[in-house]
Amino acid sequence: MGRIGPTEIILIIALLLLLFGGKKIPELMRGLGRGMKEFKDAQKDDATPSDKP
Predict the structure, then answer these.
(1) Would the pTM of this model clear 0.85, i.e. be above it?
(2) Domain locations in the chain?
(3) CB 14 within 8 A of CB 25
């Protein structure tokens, strides 16, 4: 019951198109991608050992 199937994915995409329109979706995805990249970069910076004792 907790899995998302193809029908649910199609419904979600249709709702996003209705709410934001076709021109706004690429801008939102671009922002999401930038945020994910910044998050991964921050994780890499935290994973490296520091010189401070």
Answers:
(1) no
(2) 6-46
(3) no
